[in-house]
């Protein structure tokens, strides 16, 4: 009986893989010939993510992907360099952690209470830069990342403007589909609930299901978060055991090193070369934790 079930299971898996390959091929054909960075961007894994985001509807996936390619051609997220957004990161309000979750995914830590600027455009560029950076450093076989949002120090006075929240969600959902695996909102104050009631209507159902609230006194929510993260890696501020402090200089060295990697991957756009030519040579990070690279 077990043998028959196993064969049946393998057949179902094989059939599913063939269906996936067929849909990817169909979407490729619908998109048509690509060149340059659009061709580099549209890997089979990319096609699959857009199909998943639109429930395998090829026409809807095509429309979504075409909108992203237009956005990337004008916004040029792969050309943003650390020196352009470094001021946004001075307080550590958003950075890539030097640990992975239990599935080996990259982790972005967000601390909205550490907001230090007012330009919505620059804040969005900083976010996009770190999304691109996290993608560049994804471990083999991984397509997604996890978010940890720490509400320490957050209040209504430094709340994210509704317009910025909406645009952030728009970019994440429409141009980085299926990149978010899970997002934990750790110990948000009660006043945040009113803001959330508005924001959640901007989320599609798939994204909404990935957002989890965690409260230190709610055992189930804490256990859920710890099922995704090793307690030894989690910062104390997020209920873990790790003593972590954001060091802007060290993180900057890592990002400048990653800028070189990004330029080599996409093809240098000259911005980094000009920055170096102006006497601002990139520092080399000699002691970068392997999991952060």
Automatic annotation (TrEMBL):
SMART domains: CRAL_TRIO_N (SM01100), SEC14 (SM00516). Residues 82-246 form the CRAL-TRIO domain. Gene3D superfamilies: CRAL-TRIO lipid binding domain. InterPro entries: CRAL-TRIO_dom (IPR001251), CRAL-TRIO_dom_sf (IPR036865), CRAL/TRIO_N_dom (IPR011074), CRAL/TRIO_N_dom_sf (IPR036273), PI_Transfer_CRAL-TRIO (IPR052578). Signal peptide: none annotated. PANTHER family: GH16843P, SEC14P-LIKE PHOSPHATIDYLINOSITOL TRANSFER FAMILY PROTEIN. This is CRAL-TRIO domain-containing protein. It comes from Glycine max.
